[in-house]
Design goal:
single chain; alpha/beta; 279 residues; NAD(P)-bd_dom_sf; five-stranded mixed sheet; 16% strand; Rossmann fold
Length: 279
């Protein structure tokens, strides 16, 4: 025995446990599970990293177990994130197989690491138990339903306009993102769940909705000229990569999803007007 020399030490207690055991959830028999239960706003990452990690890790495992015990399991959709790509070189066509560095000891990484682990669980369950699992990676999704204190730049800017405030930027606004309206994203989710390949990740984004952060601010102000708002830029950022390791250009390759017949229908001008008018 490896601990033979210490087995009789009064300060040592040997206990045998099954650390692969997963908490059981009481869910009625079902065909599909759609798992989007996760804190997505950066405002949570530093104050509740544990609460950000666990739904994507333990929660995903528990839901997979529930669906596995169903009489007729047809699919689990795991809503991952574009943040799983980590720090990738600036790319105008980020394919699902492209990955960059992600520092697991950075508190800000709790969200991306949780999503990576959730994806790995989905792939493992499909490989070992043939449970159909589907993975979607939404990029920058916007629309009615976002909270005023969300903390992401597109939400902050939209609520600035709702409140009649000038948009104040804390960077040069050069970072480019592809913004996708929520109804297009939901259609993409169901397209993957019902017609996609199991255990394969799909980017869900609108490449035609690409804007720099500064262009987004200008667009939102221009939509409501009667409010007479302005965009104020402070000192530009000193690095091409944000401190939490996400590149300044995070632009998606969506060919895998469009091959299933999906197309985004709402452009940023339409979508942000709908969102702001809703509030």
């Amino acid at each position: 025995m490896r601990l033979g020399d210490a087995i009789d030490d009064p300060h040592l207690t040997i206990q045998t446990s099954d650390l692969s055991a997963i908490a059981k959830l009481e869910i009625a028999d079902c065909n599909y599970v759609l798992h989007a239960a996760s804190q997505a706003s950066p405002r949570f990452y530093s104050v509740d990293p544990v609460g950000t990690l666990l739904p994507n890790a333990l929660g995903t495992a528990a839901l997979l177990g529930c669906l596995q015990s169903s009489a007729d399991p047809r699919g689990m959709l795991f809503v991952s994130s574009s943040e799983v790509y980590g720090d990738v070189p600036s790319s105008r066509s980020l394919h699902e197989d492209a990955y960059g560095v992600l520092n697991p000891t950075s508190i800000r990484a709790c969200y991306a690491e949780g999503k990576r682990f959730g994806e790995a669980l989905c792939a493992a369950w499909y490989h070992q138990y043939q449970l159909p699992t589907y993975i979607v990676r939404p990029f920058h999704t916007y629309g009615p339903g976002l909270q005023e204190n969300d903390g992401r730049v597109f939400a902050d800017f939209a609520f600035n306009v709702v409140r009649g405030e000038n948009i104040v930027m804390n960077s040069d606004g050069a970072a480019r993102r592809a913004f996708c309206y929520v109804s297009d994203v939901i259609a993409g989710f169901f397209t993957v769940l019902l017609t996609g390949k199991p255990a394969v990740a799909y980017n869900v984004a609108n490449p035609a909705g690409e804007l720099s952060v500064y262009e987004l601010a200008q667009l939102l102000v221009s939509l409501y000229p009667q409010k007479k708002l302005s965009v104020v830029r402070r000192e530009p950022s000193l690095s091409g990569v944000r401190s939490h390791g996400i590149s300044t250009e995070l632009l998606p390759d969506t060919r895998r999803l469009t091959a299933l017949g999906w197309r985004a229908k709402i452009d940023p001008e339409q979508g942000f007007r709908r969102m702001i008018d809703a509030y």
